[in-house]
Amino acid sequence: MKRILLIFLSASVVISCSKGSKGSSGKPGLKGELIPRGSAKSFVAERPYGMVPIPGGSFVMGMADQDFASTPEKAMPKTVTVSSFFMDETEITNAEYRLFINAVRDSIARGLLAEAAGEGGGEEGGNGGSIGDYTYASKKTGEEATPYQKFLESQGGRDGYDESKKLDWKVPIHYNTSAYPDEKYAEVLESMYLPADKRINNERIIDWSKIKYNYQWEDVLSAVKDKNRGANYLKKESIAVYPDTTVWIKDFNYAYNEPLFDQYFWHNAYKEYPVVGVTWDQARAFCDFKTKMKTDYNNSLKKKKQKAMRFRLPTEAEWEYAAKGGIQNATYPWGGPYLLDDRGCYLANFKPKRGTYIEDEKKGNYTYTAPVKKFPKNGYGLYDMAGNVAEWTESPYNNSTYEFSSTLNPYLSNQAYREVKKTVRGGSWKDVGYLLMTGYRDWERKDSARSYIGFRTIQDIPAGAGKFARKTK
């Protein structure tokens, strides 16, 4: 009897503690029954801007319709199942990636200015007329620190993001020297630029090696394996995010590619072209930033939204499944085994025939990369899943992974982090047609940047989602 009473009391404690941290109070349940509060509406997954839903399903992964012997890229075909997810309809463009690096640049600039401003004396609604306007939002005149902020300050802050050091993003930053408000501001901002003795033709350029994105992620697999959770399983990353524009020279030592080196990433003529020169680590940093942007927006709403699912790189299985466009054993994303349509136009941007990069522009040939959405989309609404630029995946490159990985959402997260070789899919503008096949595998070192490798992101869709909402505007 005593044991039964102890079990009942323990259950009572669990029930009382399970109400969550959203300010709920009182006894749990309803009318003495354990009935969850709130309506039983089904969850609707909001489709992110520029992404399309990929319904889950099963398919034969690998070169099921081809059998080329002695190729290192070949692995035994295997039937696998993947869950539903959203995927970028195009590769990440230069314009999108520039938003990322500019946001990181601005964040660093605001942090430096806030530290230099100190107490500052700035006021809410300042327009950057003095460095004092850039002080931390919590220290501005008339803004009372919350009890939580006061607690953090009494404890000396915390490792990572400190709420007491929240930046005021409403104050504009001036990068034009003629708009500098005072000398202290000029001193801080100029520290972000290359010093005069390192400039070429005295051109004033940001020292992009200093523009690093800091984030952390948890090695869940190791934590579960050790039956433990804690800060020692957090992996802290500090990634220089500016793409390597020298790839246009390094990848082609005997070709004149200087115009692309000078202009491809930053010139507006290339804003809708896929970003290249991005390493695997930089692509993952972009995914984390994209997640943070959505999370911060959801938290800023008066009516809070469900926590945003994180954005990430697709696994190799997810990428191949999406590339097939819903067609089993699709040789290419458009389904058929041919590289031209019935009008004689190419269906992807690649190197046709024996190296003829430009045969007829009306047929869809481009010297290098092409703007996104210039070729037909596949059955799922995805563009350029073959050609243009090859794409990073989350998965490590190893033929044996086909043998021991799961048949349900195959994923090797722990090995993916440690393995230097990463799987690259899709073929590129410099490749022959064979490399564009949906089942073809290729690889690159994760710390390498190439003029022919880009990426696109995906976001998981919860299994309980009943339907998809219209994309956000």
UniProtKB/TrEMBL annotation:
By its UniProt entry, which InterPro entries does this protein fall under? Answer: CTDL_fold (IPR016187), Glid_motil-assoc_lipo_GldK (IPR019866), Sulfatase_Mod_Factor_Kinase (IPR051043), SUMF_dom (IPR005532), SUMF_sf (IPR042095)
| Keyword field contains Lipoprotein | yes
State any single GO MF term. formylglycine-generating oxidase activity
Pfam families to which the protein is assigned, alphabetical: FGE-sulfatase
Domain Sulfatase-modifying factor enzyme-like residues, every copy: 50-105, 215-458
Among Gene3D superfamilies, the record links this protein to: paralog of FGE (formylglycine-generating enzyme)
> What are the alphabetically sorted keywords of the record?
Lipoprotein
This one is known as: Gliding motility-associated lipoprotein GldK
Q: What is the lineage of its organism?
A: Bacteria, Pseudomonadati, Bacteroidota, Flavobacteriia, Flavobacteriales
